Amino acid sequence: MNKLTNEAGLLVSIYQELFLQFAKVSGGTIESFNTLLCIGIILVSLYITKGSPTKKKVQRKAPNNKDREYGHWMADHTFTTPTPPPFKNWSHELTKPLPYRAFKHNYHITMGIRNMDWASWFELDNEWMKYHEEKVRRIKTRGTELYETSPKATEAAWELLDEMTSYLPNRYPSMFKREGTTIENLVTKEIFELDRSKSTEDPILMCAKMVQDDLAIIIEHEDGNYSLESGAIILAGFWRFRDKFQMKLNEIHTSGDVPKFNEKLKPGMTRFFQRLTLDKPVVRNNYFIQTDDNLGWSSSIGDEDVKEVGWNTAQEATNVDQLYFRSERQSLRRLPKSGAVVFTIRTYFVPMVKLCKEPYIPRRLLDGINSWTEDVKEYKGYAKYKDALLPYLEKRALEQEQGGLAPADEPNVYPF
Ligand code: HEM
Fold it and tell me: How many angstroms is it from 239 CA to the middle of ligand 1?
């Protein structure tokens, strides 16, 4: 723009010279001056807003991936992920997890996506170390059951590593330092090699060791569908990476019996992924009730190594102390060079008894659960904890209401 303004300035000087010459010949009346001035102003403003014709010719057109043939993405070098500001006073010991309470009085199956602020791509807190230790323990015992990158997603996984190692030191400078071809975790002293020719680790695994989230990369096919081609799914609780690796997104959901997937979610999701642009990341939240306190794998639905697992084989919970509120905050964004889509899954995990001490929560959760349809009840394992949970929620809700908490004053601040 500065260059353009200088060029416009030059144009004005030429114009002034022309006017002086004109004035000499015409006698320089006020009318002739005004007319010339108006024409001049119009010419200069047109120049500034449109740019010079020569400039337009040399401008490189960005690849128009909007009109792409599915499965054929052209690297977009014009897009840069916004650099996040440092998280003020963030501490891996003191910063508390965000209190996502992502349920409403009425439950509906919807995509439930909202725009995401770039700064919040990864949310880290004082449970980082606990999550990290659990991840490292599970990787040691289960290895590549929990992660892999197929050749289709190799470029995307390296691109994700590059994006994350740009984001993390900017957002959490007290934990991450990028120097040369490495990034160091200043708390654990882990050092990750980012140079592909020197590194021996799967990039998706390196990424997953830096954050509390599980990570997945989905790749577009020529028919417009997406499949899971890279992932480090280490703390998923209710599903296993190996069961879904390289599956198409639709099949991932139908094989998991996600309620009303075909009728209510599939059409919107298909459109959403085909149209997802680089600059519009999104988030969504969900929630589950778990009948044990294992973050990595919910052992009460079955042994992780047994082929068929699910709520139908689970033991019934007898006491509210066994129950945990499990809620995921998921984000989705597209990577500019590969065009792959990154799916992050951050689990928040709170004992039910602790959760119910919060104002309005017992009534809202009770109403929400009571509004589940039969298919949702089945998917979420309702039968296995309803007797331990529902009377407890009712009791806590009444206590709060009798203590003066007026339902009409409840703040409406989803997902909190
Ligand atoms: C807009 C994007 C998406 C929407 C709206 C969506 C929706 C859902 C819903 C409604 C469920 C049931 C649990 C819940 O309430 O969250 C679910 C489960 C699941 N989703 Fe998605 N999903 C999306 C993207 C993805 C992606 C990109 C993956 C890639 C791995 C994925 C993998 C899964 C898996 C593995 C489950 C669990 C299935 C099971 O219980 O076995 N989803 N999804």
Answer: 11
